[in-house]
Sequence to fold (937 residues):
Amino acid sequence: MQVNEKEFKPTIVAFCCNWCSYAGADLAGTNRLNYPADVKIIRVPCSCRVNPMFILRAFQRGADGVIMCGCHPGDCHYTTGNYYARRRMTLLFSMLDYLGIERERTRVEWVSAAEGAKFAATMNEFVETVTKLGENKRLEDLRCKEK
Amino acid sequence: MQRIGVFVCWCGSNIAATVDVEAVSEALKSEPGVVFSTNYQYMCSEAGQNMIKDAIKEHNLTGVVICSCSPRMHEATFRKTVQGAGLNPYMVEIANIREQCSWIHKDKQTGTEKAIILGKAAIAKVHLNAPLTAGESPVVKRALVIGGGIAGIQTALDIAEAGFDVDIVETKPTIGGKMTQIDKTFPTLDCAACILTPKMVDCAQNEKIHIYSYSEVTAVKGFVGNFTVSIKKKARYVDTTKCTGCGVCTEKCPVKNVPNEFNLGMNNRRAIYIPFAQAVPKVATIDADYCNMLKNGKCGVCSKVCTAGAIDYKQQDEIIEERYGAIVAATGFNPIKLDNFDEFAYSQSKDVITSLEFERLTNAAGPTSGQLLRPSDGKHPHTIVFVQCVGSRDTSGCGKPYCSKICCMYTAKHAMLTREKYPDTDVYVFYIDVRTPGKNFDEFYRRAVEDYNVHYIKGMVGKVAPRADGTLDVQASDLISNEQLHISADLVVLAAAIEPDKSARPLATMLTASMDTNDFFTEAHAKLRPVESPTAGVFLSGTCQGPKDIPETVSQASAAAAKVIGLLCKDKLTCNPCVAHSDEMLCNGCSSCEKVCPYGAITYSDKEFRMPDRTTAIRRVAAVNEAVCQGCGACTVACPSGAMDLKGFSNKQIMAEVDAICK
Amino acid sequence: MSKVTKEQVLRSSGVNVLKCMRCGKCSATCPSYDEMEYHPHQFVYMVEKGDLEPLLNSDSIYKCLSCYACVERCPRGVEPAKVVEGIRNAVLRQSGMNHIKAENIPEMLDEDLPQQAIVSAFRKYKR
Fold:
């Protein structure tokens, strides 16, 4: 089935660390700041818990974009977790690049617990970017697709 | 296969207005493993909780999914609920359909669809949940208070009162903080020193309190109940155990031109000094930047005159390590630098001063012995203009976006005291809004206007220009009479915004406590947990959390103390059971996990294993110390063999969530 | 003459008047305050209210020196001078005539006048 550009609703997975970004997402909600429903958040204790495997799995299962949010560098609840995450993601992103997944489909953002507005703005912008890119088919495993 | 119950909360209309709760509970009913699904007005209410308990018993549930507000809000509540019904508390998963769904979407269909997906993800996760038991860790019965201002002093006194040891770390040579520099306090006008110094003395005399003055925290390790803190005792070149505080050295020291920070540089002190008469501890300190002996080895006067033999030019910085169960941040504030406000001529004219400088000018221990004199020529000012909101409520980038809260009241106090002491003075106050919420605060401000005839003008000063005759031309707007005023003033007092102390940011990093964009510490909950940091075991006292006046600071300081006492009373703390776990059969002994662990929770040991061919082999495998592990999960990703996993957030659980969302 | 709308002024000036907290620092700082019938803070407030008629008919729009002192010192970044400019532009665009004709430009040129001034004046005053 041909997906119409206008009707296309991306599937976006957001990994948020429990201490900063998840709280930032909650704050966006508390302040009633809108962002598209295409974003679904998965809570992880720290950005360093995000295994690159999870991101590949998301793309394999049909996600169109994956964003990972953590505490600002230096502010990690576990002191150094986001530094590990940053390095791992840099490597993963260059691999995705090699695989031909557009660079814009993956992103790392630092959102603190006080930055509800930044969270909403980031999500709005990311969804817009991914929507423009259209459906991600490159890594999608068609065997996983529901009929 | 789990038997899962799904409970969808309406949260009154908070969720039900944009999510069709009936449709959500209906849709989730057909998910695999779901044997019961319902919705209710308030799941967190007693009736709602009983509903969950009854359902667990009636339907023999092994897992529970609650679609409600953020897990940061009520996860603990619902864990307790299921525990009450005999289920393991970690068999609950929460789908956040309020903060991350109903509150951000306006369209009911969109909201409902998203809520269903979030519910499915939670169901997928709970399928893989396993019962977890929390371990225990001991509590060190000692507290650390960082900052020795009125906030730190009050917190320390209250903790000591309860019978616990408490240490105060203060960077200055004396405790007391900003309040020592203030002359009178609103709204009762009692003298700040008279009410503060007895508390400072109490601190010094209390055997439960230990003061590390002229010291800094340089490193913090550990976690709630068991912090290890490195404290740097800066060299003061005076043996504090010998110094009697007689002050002879501070009179004989030949270096007389050191700007006195206690009087904000409005007069000078010596290179060896005691900040002020009531300092605690009352011992001298040598300023290494100015001391001739320390700079070029030529002097030694203080050493000669000291009868106690307390001077020690060879003293070095000393780092000590101490263990604490709880840490209180009380780092306080400073007035902002006024470099961005050239229009007020602060740097051009000595007669344009900040409010804190005004406090020193009216204080009997200040540079003018309490006489209100112009800094430039020492004459009595006859026209004084106070400017409020200098750098506060400023979103242009020059100042601070928040209201500094205390300026309206202290300006009213200054204006009133000036009029009382010098009735021949004309006092003008330029205000944008006068904000006086607080007991007897508005009455106080009205007294300044009605009884003391202070001219309050609604408007702002645009420009202050020094004139050749020494007066200051104050150009301002009067918005009510709609005119532009030119006032010829003798003294202009700027109510500068306050900002958190610069030491707060590096401290927050050490404590892994979060901060807002203005560098104020973030509280665990803006309304319900205002004195706790989101980091367990770290508490907040005073202005490091947000602008506050003295009464508010003291109440918060006592509140923080109560929280600390509550923590220190416990002998053991329940640990977070969501910790890492290594599967010994998969571990290849590579040490990758050990290297990334920020807590040193992973150790390796050689262990004997029975191999499939019935031989035994000795293999090097990792083991996690569950009391030390904080559950960040860094090791789980570093592990190349997939042996390391995190309980409660296992690889399989997260992937199940990913799958549910991407379907 | 079609009606000048608030939206038109807000769009052409690029100013968000809702950011104003009514401190009056713009008027406190204005060097041509005494010359103006309506003062910088009033421009912001009246545009916010949509009360444009008095401003459009007032001389004040020409008394503003565009010195930008108010813009520089406004603690909320409101930029009152741009609001004044927005009103002024609205009046000029409304007047239905060219204030400068292209063919008149050569005779206005002299060595002291920066060419950019001519270009900007042309842009401003041509219909």
About this structure: Residues 80-94 of chain C form the longest helix (15 residues). Chain C has nine helices and no strands.
